[in-house]
Write a structure and sequence with these properties.
7-stranded mixed beta sheet, binds S-adenosylmethionine, 3-stranded antiparallel beta sheet, single chain, Rossmann fold, alpha/beta, globular, 20 helices, 494 residues, 2 domains
Length: 494
Amino acid sequence: MAIYTNEEIISFLEAFLSYGLVVSPWLAGVREETRFDVSIYRILDTAAIDISSKLWTDEVKVEVYGALPIPDRLARTAVYEVGASTSVSMAHDLTGTNDVTEKIAHLALTQINEYIEKFGFGSLVIVYGFITSYENHHAIAYYGRIPERDFVRGTLHRPWVDYSLSDELLFSIYLGNYKVIVIDQVRYVELTAHGYETLKNYEHVLKQSGYLDKKVKQLQISNFNVLDKYDEYSQKIWPNSTLLRSSFLNWAHISPGMRVLELGCADGIFAFEGGLAERIGKKGLLVGIDPSAAMIARAERKLSSHLMDWVHFYKARAEDLPFLDELFDAVIGIGVWHFLQFPKALQEVYRALKPGGVFASFHPTNSSFTHIPFFREWFEPLLRQANMRNQEKPLDYLPVYEQAQQEMEQNGFVNISSDRREIINHFVSSDMVIDHLILGVGWFQEELSLLPWKAREEMINELRHRGTIVCEQYPDSERILHAQIQFIKGNRPL
Ligand SMILES: C[S@@+](CC[C@H](N)C(=O)[O-])C[C@H]1O[C@@H](n2cnc3c(N)ncnc32)[C@H](O)[C@@H]1O
C-alpha cells in the first residue's frame, strides 16, 4: 500500500525540520486554552485556501495517494496546521512566549512556501499526513481503545483541531489499521495487528529522521521558557548549587581577564549569582548564550542593573555558535551537556576556542533513584510508563561518566580530566518540584513528551497531586536525593 519508501519519507521529514517547520502545536508546548486571534487565523486560513487550491492538482494527488481515497479537506488543513504550529513554534523561539503576531505568521508562511518550492507540495502533505497519522495511532495504542466520539473530535490527542477526524478514521479502517468495536452500546476505535505494525514503522521513521528527538527537546525548552523563578527554585531545590558553582569556577581555572563563553546560561544565574562575571572582571569578556529567548531576556534585565559592560547575552545554540574562530580562552557550561547534540556542539566549541583554550562542563550523570521510597511513590505513574517502553533508567538521557570523556576525546580535546561531586536535590514542595525539575529542567522529559496530549496534561496534574500527599507523608529531611555530578574539562591542543 505504501507509495513512498521509509527512506524517502525520512528525507522529507529531515528537510521539513531543517526549514523550522512543525506539525501539532503541542510540539511547542501550547496549552489547551491557547488560541489565535481572529486576524492570525484569517492570515493562515487564507494562505491555506490559496496554496491548496493552486497546488493540490490531480497530478500531485496521484503522486501522493495514487488510487487511494483522499479526505477532501486534507491539503487545506495540511497547510493550515503546519502554518499554525510553525507560527507557535517560531513565537517560542523568537520571543519565548506563545504570542503569534502577524509578522510571525507571515514568517511561518514564508518558510512553508520555500519548502514547497524546493520539495514540492506533495511532500508537505505527506509529512503532515504521516505525523498526524502517527499521533492517531499512538494515542489509540496508549489508551488501548478510544471512544469513537472522542477520536473524531481529537479530545484526547489533538484537541486543537476544529474539524472532525472522521475521514482519518475511515481512511485508516480502509487501510486495515483500525477497527471499530461496540462495547455496552458504545463504539470504540482500536488498532488492528496491522495497525500496531504500522505504528512501529511510524516510530522507527520518526526516530530516524530526528523528529521525535526534536519534539522532546522543543517541548522541554518551551516549558523552560515560562519558568520565571529559575533562580529562586534552583537555590531551594539544589541548596549546595552555589557552592558547587564556585568550586567549578576554581576547578576550571577561570581567572580575571579571560574571554569566556558560557553555554546554556539561562537567566544568568552563573554569571551573576554564581560569581562568574565578577571573577572575569572588566579586563575580560563574558558571553552567555541560550536558545531560550525568555531566559536571555531575563539575563539582560539582570545585566541592566549590574553595570558590567564586559558581559553580553545572545540567543543562540551551542551547535551553531555565532562567533568567529578561536575567540575564547574558555567555553563552559553548567547543566547543559545533556541538552546538546553531539558531535556538532563539541565541534563548534572546539572551533570557537583558541588553541590551548579549555572546555569545561559541570553536569549530572545517569543515576537511578527508583529504589528510594518517597521518589518511587511520587513518580510511580511515570516509572511505570518508562518500564512499558523498556526503559530501566528513566533518567537515561543523562550522560554516563565515561561516555562524556570519550566524547571529548573523539572530538580532539586533550588533557581531559574529570571529577565526581554530588548535588543535593531537595524535594521542597510539590508544585515547585514539578515546575522546576519536571517541566523546567526536564527530568523524565522523554516519558512526558511522548504521551498523547491529554494524557500528558493529566500526568502532570497527577504528579502534582501525588507530590502533595508524599510531602505530607514524608518529613522534609527524608525528601532528599543525592545525584552524581561530573566536572569535566579538556583543552583544544596548542
Ligand atoms: C538545566 S538548564 C541550566 C541553566 C544554567 N546553566 C544553570 O547553571 O543553572 C539548561 C540550559 O541549557 C539551555 N540549552 C538547551 N539546549 C541548548 C543548546 N542546544 N545550546 C545551548 N544551550 C542550550 C536551556 O535553555 C537551559 O537554559
